[in-house]
Each structure stands twice: as C-alpha cells, then as structure tokens.
Amino acid sequence: MIRFPIGLAAVCLTMSAIAAEPFDDKFRQLDELLPTPTSIRTASGAPGHAYWQQRADYAIRATLDEGRRAITGTETITYHNNSPDTLSYLWVQLDQNIYKRDSDARMTATLPSRDAWAKARGPEDGYKFDALRAVLEKSTFDGGFKIAGVKDAGGRPLHTVINRTMMRIDLPQPLKPGAKLAFSIDWSYNINEQKVLGGRSGYEKFDEDKNDLFEIAQWFPRMAAYYDVMGWQHKQFLGTGEFTLEFGDYDVQLTVPADHIVAGTGELQNPGDVLTAGQRQRLEQARTATKPVIIVTQAEAEAKEKTRAAGTKTWHFRAKNVRDFAWASSRKFIWDAQGFKKDSTNVLAQSFYPKEGNPLWEKYSTAAVIHTIAEYNKYSLDYPYPVAISVNGPVGGMEYPMICFNGPRPTKDKKTGELTYSSRTKYGLISVVIHEVGHNYFPMIVNSDERQWTWMDEGLNSFLQYLAEQAWEEHYPQSRGEPRVIVDYMKSANQVPIMTNSESIAALGYNAYAKPTAALIVLRETILGRELFDFAFREYAQRWKFKRPTPADFFRTMEDASGTDLDWFWRGWFYTTDHVDVSVDGITEYTVGTKDPEIEKAWKKAQRDAEPISITDQRNKGTLPRRVDAHPELKDFYNEHDEFTVTNHDRNKYNEAIEELEDWEKNLLKEGKHLYLVDFSNLGGLVTPLVLEITLASGKKYIERIPAEVWRYAPKKITKLIMTDEPMVALTQDPYWETADTDVSNNSWPRKAMPSRLELYKTQHDKDNLMKEFNEKLKTKDDAEKAVTPKSE
C-alpha cells in the first residue's frame, strides 16, 4: 500500500474532482468504424480491380390455381461462382416460410404494451378488429413452401437442410471459382389473403363481383447472396429486413386462367398468344404516344368480371440482368401504357388496375411512372430496362425490378355509388408510385444489402422521391423531406442510430426513411451545395450500378467525389442519436477605438447618458432644492467641466501617438467597423454549420454561412466574431429551418416570443349519468337512416 502525505492526498483529491471532461472530438475520422479498404472495395469508395459478384439465372414454369389460390412451379437455377472461393454448399431463400405457423416472425411477435391490449384510451392506441383477425388466421393458414424435390442437372436428388426461411443445398462436388452449376427445385404454396395476413404480396378478393386480384412476389426459392463483406447473407427473413439477391437473366412462363391479364417483370414474348389483335395494336401505338393509351379498356375488364373463361393461357416473359421477378394477374385489370425515350432510356411505362382504381389511376399512375424515370435519371443513372409497371392491388407499396405494387384508390359511397378521392389519396398515389418506381434505381440496380441496411435503399430512394415531388408541382404536400419535419423525432427518446440492422430498427419510418432523407437534404443544401452534392451522388450511382455497395462505399464515394471531409457528418447523423440544437447565448458589441479624444470622450459620454436614470434622481428632479442653484457663487470650473471634457493635453497626446503610426495603421483606426462577439452553445450534441441571418440598423438583412468545422476545437461552446459596417440590431441562427434544429426558441437575439394558442373548453356537467343513459330510447335501423338522409325541400 502506498501512503501519501495528508496534504498531497488532499491535493490529489481536489485535482481529481475538478478534472476536465474528456474531449469529445466530433471530427475524428471514421477509420475506426469503416472496414479497411481492399482491392475489392477501395478507399475512394469505388469498386476495386478485384471486385467480383455472383450470378444466378432462372428458368421458371409456374401455374396459378385461382380456385385453390395456390401456385405450383418448377425452376432451374444456373449458379455462377464468380468468387475466388470454393463453395461446398449453397443457400437458398424460402421467404414464403414466414407464413408457417411456427415461423420466427410469428413466434417472436409481441404487443406494443399491455395497456394497448387491455386498457386502450381510444381507437388510436386500441387493439383493432383486423389485428385480432390476423392473429386467428395465422393460426390456421397453411402457409409456406412445400418443396417437392431438389435435383441436379442429371435429375439426381440433392441433399438439403431447411432452416426456417433458408435452405442449404449440399453439393456432391465443391463448386470451384469460375465454375457454374445448374439444379432444379419443384415447389408449391398457398397464397395469403393480403388484407388479412399482410405481407408484400398476396391476393385480394372482391365480394361484389366474386373475383380475385393476385400480386405475386417472393414466390419462388431464390438464391441467397454471397459476397466479400458478408459471405452468405442468410439472416432469417423476419419481415422488416428486405431482400438481397444476385443479378441474372430470367425466362418465366406463367399459366393462368384464360381471361386473366398478367403484368410481369421483363418483356412479354408471346403477345399473339394472350392478347387480341386490337390490344396488340394499341400496345404498339402506346410506344410512341404522348399520353397513355388504354390497352385493355374498363368496358372489356367489366365484361370479363361477369363470366369465367374456360381453360388457361401461358404468358411468357424474359428479363435480362435483374435481381428478382414479380407479377400480377387478374381478369379485372384495366391496362394503359405510354412510351418514354430520352438519352439511353427507352421504356414503356404501364399501369394495371381494377375499375375500383378509376378515375384516379387512369389519370395519374402512368404519368407518375414517366415523371419518376425522367427525374431519377437526372440525379443517378439512365433507366436501363424496357418496361416500368405500376399495379393497383392490396399491397400498399412494394417494389421489384420493372414492376411495383401500389395501393391508393378512390372511395365509393355505399349508398349513392359516387366515386371521390381526397387530396391525401391523390398525392398519396403519386408519391407511392414515385417511391416504388424509384426503387428500380435503389436497390434494384444499385444493389445494396437490404437485409442488413434498410436506409441504403429506403433512405436514398426517399431523398430522390422528395426531389421528384418538388418537380411535380409547386407546394407539393410533403410527408418526408424537409429537415424541419424530422425535429420531433430527432429529440425523442428511445431512438437508435440510422446505422442499425434492419430487424433492430425502432420507428422504421422515421429512422430508415425520413431521417436519412433529411440528412441528405442538409448535406445537399447547407453543407456541400447542389453542384458538389449532385456530382458526387451521381458518381455513386454510376460506380455501383449492377453491383452491391456497402455504407462505407457510399460514405467514401460522397467524400471522394465532392472533395470534402464529411466524416463528422456521417458520424453524427448516422452513427449517433445526437440532434441539432444550437443556442445563441449572448452578444457583446465592440467598435474600434479611434484614439481621437474628441470622438472617444463623446462616445463614453453617450454610453453614460444611455444608462438608466436612477429612481432617486427621477424623484428628486424638480422637487429637491439645490444649494448651488440658490448660491451661484459656489460654482467653479468643475461645475462646467467633467471627465468627458477634452483638454489640450488630450489633443497633444493624440497627435503624438498618430505621428508614430504607419499609414495602414491610421486607416485601420478610421474603418468604423462594428464588432460583435457572439456566444453559441451546442445543446443537442450534433455539430452543424451556422447559418446566420444578420439584421442591421438600416433594415438590411444578409446571410452569413459558417462551416461546421467552427466546432472542431470546442464542440460544446464557441465564440464567433461578427463584423458589420453598421450597428447590428438582430441575429437569427438557422432562419430557414434548414438544419433540423430541434428548438428554434433559442436561435435568436434578441429572443423572440413563440406564438401559440390557448384553447378554451366548455365545462361538462352531469357526466356519467347512468339514470339518463338507462332511460335513453333504443335507436332502430330506421332512426339511423333518417339521421343521415337529408330532408327534401
């Protein structure tokens, strides 16, 4: 044991108690968090010379059994091992197994809270009819893949092991680098009713005309991704983390009822077998049309709703270099299309929808598809595929290569049959079409790992969606985008960083969509500026199209192409839950002393005269007799002069001092600048540029932008020198609310009162009157109808 003298021990304890907090370097580099660059993924964020990527080609034959609401299929997968590794087994995704009764998704589901279940305060947080219905249906629905066989190219069975939503295929001979392997899988499954069981696909039944509409996705066993960062990406499918897949060519033949219309990924190979001569003619006309052409009319669709054609037809599609295939089928479909051609893009934009979608869908869907491609091409890459399809059905919004499922429809009045739609429905449709078609770029082409990082597809796509919405019309109603929209979430409790695995994200919509969108808008508008940002973002899309980027590749590319160190930005916005809250704490005004006694003593006198008159002097004025007023002979030199009187000694001293100055020093004394020391506090922890609106005495206003590096050496509190030509009368930090500052009440000097409203309510008397409620007349059905039927005049 070591002994200290008592005095030394006291000193040590005192020093320990007052030791400074460890310095929190908000600008330290991300090297400690990002993976080490390699010849596969370089330090610049670009793919390296050794970059590799697996490939999987598919030939699929499938049949839709409308009566049983089931699909049976067989597929041949040709797997190309482009990696430097020898593979002794392969992993295949069985996403439909999420519908098995004992799936992880179902077994791990919990309620938000006991109160939400048993003690709800109202409809907002109460348990819903459809939620309980789904729970009951899940316990009886026979879901999941039924694998009938897995065989090699010679028809010999391959050994497999199914681990919930993943299947391992053991290879008789290891698959060496550069080799390829073909094998087949026979399978079937029952299609879920989407509005009951939810999910990203399923069927919708229409009770009025007894028809179904099928939106089919995650419908065949798909190769799991194998890549340099993760090896096999075989995280279980739990429902939130979406899909990571390999690119390949697809040859798909779909056998459906003869009167169905089918929309699918890729180009239709046999229009002569499935379309009428008139429909084929309209389809050809649509390619050069300036507005959507109706391929299958509403009258044709309504006629088919009333009958059932005998037999089946097979629709044949081919798609090149895509990572997935989805389709939709129904006799209810109306179909319109319009071509769009610009630069290297030559696409047929199409929409498929039941009559329940009109008049909204025929007016806006295909127009929104074309608008999306035109706008996204500006900021990322030219759309490379031949078709882009929007389908209306039960799925609210979900994306696949060349095709997406979108939900909004008009409302039909049950009594009058009148079709109307709200502003929210109209713009909801346009926005969801933009968003889901936009996913063709991220992640269908820029192929990020959605199972791992949701923000890399949802966040980047939501950002481009915001730009496309801005280009649709002025004052487009925004739900995500502007940094000001995210402030309540940014200061809320129980957040997780954006860099959180997909299945562990709390508040998915805010975390994976809205916050990354706001971050990129701040980066574009406030930090980099549009020119630097747009160049860097497009460079990222060009570098990684048809490849699989990671977050590090995005971060490094944005820095490399913009020429800006942004490690502080990624660290704060993506790796922490800090928020922006800058407080303007205080301002002190200085002017440069001229040394001229005539000026300086006058300035000091003016400062003294500006001080408040004491209460004593106020009350003495005019009421207290003064002796020197009654006896003037008592006055002398000091009654006429005070410390502000300029003397010849002052003038001589000034002249001597001026003679010793150089010309530039003399000029500096005459500048007449106003200097202000402004204290800022970083209360939220997230460093940010300062955007200062300065108001001068003349009423002139101007903006001064100060980079975030102003916080580099003092991340919690700084003092900034502001210099003006005339007196400053006001200063506001973040005047346009562009930095997501969570408390604008402390952003101004002088402080501004924050307007609000006081709502008054009438006092309720005699509540919970059981006697009155007991004696209330029981209403009949006729009473209810009279209450809603207006009286005729």
Automatic annotation (TrEMBL):
Signal sequence interval, chain numbering: 1-19
The species this protein was found in: Telluria antibiotica
PANTHER family for the chain: PROTEASE M1 ZINC METALLOPROTEASE, PUROMYCIN-SENSITIVE AMINOPEPTIDASE-RELATED
Pfam families (UniProt xref): Peptidase_M1
Record's keyword terms, sorted: Signal
Boundaries of every Peptidase M1 membrane alanine aminopeptidase domain copy: 377-573
Descriptive protein name: M1 family metallopeptidase
Gene3D superfamilies the UniProt entry points to: Neutral Protease Domain 2
